[in-house]
Amino acid sequence: MIKLRDMRKPIIIIGFIFIQTCLLFGQSDTIIVPEWYNKPPQKTGVIYGIGRASSSDLVSAERKARLNAITDLTKKSNNIFNVFISKCDTVLGNDHKTLEIIKTISSECQATLKNVVDKDKKMFHQNNSYIFYYLVEQKTDEAIQAFKKKIKANNEIKDILAKKDLLKVLNELK
Questions:
Q1: For the whole model, what pTM was predicted?
Q2: Do residues 62 and 123 touch, judged by C-beta distance below 8 A?
Q3: Burial class for 66, CB neighbours closer than 10 Å (0-12, 13-18, 19+)
């Protein structure tokens, strides 16, 4: 007959392994979507991009999530300039040449994704797949200042905008 005293050590070891396994898999299978993913931060002079991706490969999931966050950031950056371009389109009417120059300058300023900062990332593992959430930020001041400077450096465009009261709108761009 097996004595209880002889069974203590194997029971403790099995119990310890069971608890560690539960802790390891219990935490990784639970996906808690970061708060910033559903409600990105709001801060004057800064835009945020969010991304999510999943893959069976850890590195691929992280890279895809970051790329998705940068894509989101680019769309939001475009919106900043599109407000001004839309206003110009309305006010300038048939002056397509001036509008095209403004759009070109806007594209040049938007194309530089300088100073993109990785703010946060969260990784989860579920069903043999890695799931990444990514948050990036970029200060908009540099791009906006470059845009304003290039517009004002073109005297012909500057004069047209001044006559149509669009320089005020340009100066309010944030």
A1: 0.65
A2: yes
A3: buried
Distance of alpha carbon 18 from the chain centroid: 40
Summarised one tens digit per residue, pLDDT across range 97-108 is 988 988 888 887
Q: What are phi and psi of 79, to 5 degrees?
A: -60, -35
Q: How far apart are the first and last CA of the chain?
A: 82
Contacting residues for 71 by C-beta, under 8 A, at least 6 apart? 49, 51
Residues whose CB is less than 8 angstroms from the CB of residue 63 and which lie 6 or more positions away in sequence, other chains included: 53
Summarize pLDDT for 13-45 with one digit per residue, the tens.
665 565 555 444 444 457 789 999 999 999 888
Of 84 and 54, the structure prediction assigns the larger pLDDT to 54
Closest listed residue to residue 119, CA positions, set 135, 133, 131, 132 = 135
Tokens 């999510």, residue? 52
